[in-house]
Amino acid sequence: MTNQNKACSKSYIAGVSFSIHPMSDQFIEIIKGALKEVDTSKVHMKTDDVTTTVRGKLVHVFDVTKAIFLHAAKTGEHVAFQATYSLGCPGDSQGEAFMAEDETLLNSSLVKDIKQSVASKFSLYPLGGGDYMDVIYAQIEAMKKHVSVSPTHYSTRLDGEAVAIFDGLENVFQATVEGGSSHTVMTVSISANSPSHKGDMKNG
Amino acid sequence: MTNQNKACSKSYIAGVSFSIHPMSDQFIEIIKGALKEVDTSKVHMKTDDVTTTVRGKLVHVFDVTKAIFLHAAKTGEHVAFQATYSLGCPGDSQGEAFMAEDETLLNSSLVKDIKQSVASKFSLYPLGGGDYMDVIYAQIEAMKKHVSVSPTHYSTRLDGEAVAIFDGLENVFQATVEGGSSHTVMTVSISANSPSHKGDMKNG
To answer: Which Gene3D superfamilies does the protein's record reference (chains A, B) (predicted)?
Structure first.
């Protein structure tokens, strides 16, 4: 492991660009309601008209995105979540201000009991080298203990509880970084309460 | 250029995993309506409850996704589009069946006059080497002739007409592949008719 990778492993300044889409006329209320229930004080968060960006410690980035998704999905509306998680050594000045935060999660305990079955796909892109393929295969194996895992084109499909899937994704992402990838990107699509699950139609 | 890259440049078997989300109670009708208007006969397309996958020649993959987005957005509803375009040499057997198709676009002329102002973000991940940074910078410069371009965290923001943005994205993607990246991934988020554009709220 190089010094550069060591530095990354210690600090874990991560970020995510995501969007959440309730397929409902009430989409504004659902998004605003979910955001109101989530404590974002340990991350830097910025929303514009295309995506929301969250930066800070990796654990808080996952804590916040998991909570926003669950609070939106528990409304029972069909909600889609799309995210690109990113971790790279190159400095992230605004995010760094939030690296002084401790690792105590602010939202996890409030959402851990929300039962929300979801369908998900993720793809991992280790851009920074390392034995990443072994890491990915090992992590996909590990994920099989928690959720249903199946291969699809361009990604791996996960079916199960949202909490287990977010926790699994965080593990995969972190393990890839620790496997030596100095720049790692992970794309995630999650669908909750889709009418497709009831056979009404086929689309995310 | 290696023989492998040469083979890729000739064939351009590309794929995309995407989803389209109308933020409306009528989301099923909007999606079904858009799909009905698009000719997908030159690609392999498969939809499940998380994403839709389209595979075939690169030109048809962009032609089909651009048309689906525009037919959904022209309803005037707030529509979000998320896609991961992918091109890699490793064989894609079901997609290959569609490589015999010619390059005449089936949808482009039907959507080229649809005026649809959008906000978009894209990120390019050349996983296969090559002088890709020079290619990316050159392509971002080239895109400035057509749409407004600005840097954002983890991606590049584009504002302008949807047709110009899709055409620009196709050019960027193809140029990156031709620049020597044997495996290229590009993530795209596009938002149309967002209330944020009118200042109602801030979210995609």
So the answer is: 3.30.70.930
Q: How far is CA B111 from CA A187, B10, B64, B98, B189, in A?
A: 29, 27, 10, 23, 19
Rounded Cα–Cα distance for residues B160 and B168 (Å) = 11
Tens-place pLDDT, residues A82-127: 999 998 755 455 556 677 888 999 999 999 999 999 999 999 888 7
Chain A touched by B84 (CB under 8 Å): yes
Q: Which of residues 135-164 of B touch A (CB under 8 A)?
A: 152-155, 157
Nearest chain B residue to A35 by CA distance is: B203
Q: Per CATH, which fold does A2-93+112-192 belong to? A: Alpha-Beta Plaits (3.30.70)
The answer to whether residue B99 neighbours chain A at the CB level (below 8 Å) is no
The domain segmentation of chain B, as residue ranges, is 2-93+112-192
CA distance A30 to chain B (A): 11
Cβ contact (<8 Å) for B203 and A52?
yes
Please tell me if residue A203 touches chain B, with a CB cutoff of 8 Å.
yes
Q: Note whether B29 contacts A: Cβ–Cβ < 8 A.
A: no
pTM for the predicted model, two decimal places: 0.88
Check residue B134 and give its pLDDT: 79
- Name, in order, each residue with C-beta under 8 angstroms of B158's C-beta and a sequence gap of 6 or more: B119, B120, B121, B122, B143, B147, B148, B149, B165, B168
